[in-house]
Design a protein that fits this description.
The protein is built from 8 helices and 11 strands. The longest helix is centred in the N-terminal third of the chain and has 16 residues. The termini are far apart.
């Protein structure tokens, strides 16, 4: 895999798509004001708070799994978190010590549970941020159905914060049958009266409980 080393050293990034084909380019041509890569100790002051703002609370190990698939020593990553001082705060989630941004604590404490049902596109960051091994997002027995061969991440349905097989209704777990194929559209919403998903494109699919 030559692409990852080139990306890590600042020589390669994604370029404009050409239809359904991915292209790559030099950051000098795609990022205004590009001056090259910076030292990790400088970068983490931006990257860690940004990650926790989207996916926190999280552990240092979860962050490093997202960043480099746990390529760093645990002591190094924990040192990065400690260096941010009062910008971060520790909380406990299901018995695990996690970090979150201090400025988000009040908002999290006042947030209530959601009953929304959402259809997420393939490779959605809601799944990739914490990782497919996080059983709070994706049950272990469903991981192979979502994290497929060749790195493919399947579109998923989310209910009460969990992906396929995690949601439950008063009568039991929900299952989905799709016909025609569900489009990858963030404007897809669940219509409880008709028991269907409705996308802005007009395509529907039926979801049932049990």
């Amino acid at each position: 895999m030559v692409l990852k080393p080139l990306a890590w050293t600042g020589k390669l990034c994604h370029g404009p798509n050409q239809g359904n084909r991915v292209t790559f380019a030099s950051p000098r041509d795609q990022v205004p004001g590009w001056t090259g890569t910076i030292e990790p100790e400088e970068a983490i002051r931006t990257v860690i708070p940004a990650y926790l703002g989207a996916h926190g609370p999280a552990t240092p190990e979860t962050f490093d799994a997202w960043l480099t698939r746990n390529a760093h020593r645990k002591t190094v990553v924990r040192g990065w978190f400690a260096s941010l001082g009062e910008e971060l705060t520790k909380v406990e989630v299901d018995g695990a010590a996690c970090y979150m941004r201090a400025k988000d604590v009040d908002a999290l404490a006042s947030a209530g549970p959601s009953e929304e049902v959402r259809l997420l596109a393939g490779f959605d960051q809601y799944v990739l941020g914490p990782g497919t091994s996080d059983t709070r997002v994706l049950r272990a027995e469903r991981r192979k159905a979502v994290s497929r061969t060749s790195g493919w991440i399947t579109p998923v349905v989310v209910h009460r914060g969990g992906s396929p097989g995690c949601g439950r209704s008063p009568t039991g777990p929900w299952t989905c049958s799709c016909s025609p194929r569900i489009p990858r559209c963030r404007r897809t919403r669940w219509r409880p009266r008709s028991g269907t998903w409705r996308c802005a494109t007009g395509v529907r699919t039926r979801c049932r409980y049990g």
